[in-house]
Amino acid sequence: MRPESVSRRFFMPIPPFKRTIMDITLNKPFAANMAVDEFDVRRMKKALNRLGYYSPYEKTGITGIPDKDVFTALKAFQKDQGLQPTGTARPGDETVSKLSSEAGKKKSGKYIWRTVGDGKVRDSHAKLSGTLRDLANSPDPGEEFNCRCWADFKGLKLDVLKTDCDEEREKYEELQHQVRELTERFNSLLLYLQKLVDEGKGLVLSAQKSLGVQTVSYILTLPFERLDVLSELLRRYFGNIISNESLKAAEHFMKQFWAVKQKAQHVKDQRDIVLAQLEQTAKKLEETKKRLEECEKSKK
Ligand SMILES: [Zn+2]
Questions:
Q1: How many whole angstroms from 97 Cα to the centroid of ligand 1?
Q2: Which among 42, 113, 237, 277 could disulfide-bond with 128, CB atoms 3.0 to 4.6 Å apart, if both were Cys?
Q3: CB within 8 A of 285, min separation 6: which ones?
Q4: What is the pLDDT of residues 162-187, one digit of tens each?
Q5: Where along the chain do its domains lie?
Q6: How far is 71 from 90, CA to CA, in rounded Å?
Q7: What confidence score (pLDDT) does residue 235 get?
């Protein structure tokens, strides 16, 4: 790939910014209404970018063209430094020396390396594009001759916060989904249990009818195999003579009843497990909701 500008062959390169000492000098007065020096513009942009005041138009990157933003950025810097916010500077004035010292002081901090993304970007810079860097690392964007690259601090902040909240939101939505599913499952188990209870009641009623007695609650305390014992009790204490046929019928109903009761017990166990899961998941959901709200608050 070609270097960032062919002009480097025809101009004496102005010494690039040194990494540790940002020595900013101006060749000419720097103001929006004046014919400014191209290299002054680059130097101002580079320093203001490093300090987080200036971000270039991403299609052009840092150029020697004096766009409106560089003067706005300078004004903001002057204001923060307690200087007259004129958006202008002169060689050797207080703004220039403050800019030098502040940019020189800023020796560390994370940023994302941005390039214009066209074919003229140096291969080595194209490789750095979009990567997380520290201001302590060499090279700096814009440091090498005619480099149009810049440091993106805003993108970094947004990216980090966005990722955090997204993670929380995904967790929150997943838990919401789980709570909905568990609630549905719990409700259907309750319905099923009610159905089994009704079915069991009906079977006991049928068994009672077959035996010709109304109050045989103790029928439930005996295993169905021992209905013969019940039959014997009924004969002894109530004088009920129960035909073998009736006994067989009652046995049949009670056999079904015990099967239903067993099923119901299994469903009850499942219901308890689902309820415990539901309570646990609802608690997690509540915690995640809080974290998500905090995250979104901090984003604003
Ligand atoms: Zn570059």
A1: 26
A2: 113
A3: 172, 175, 176, 178, 179
A4: 556 777 888 899 999 999 999 999 99
A5: 6-152, 159-299
A6: 13
A7: 77
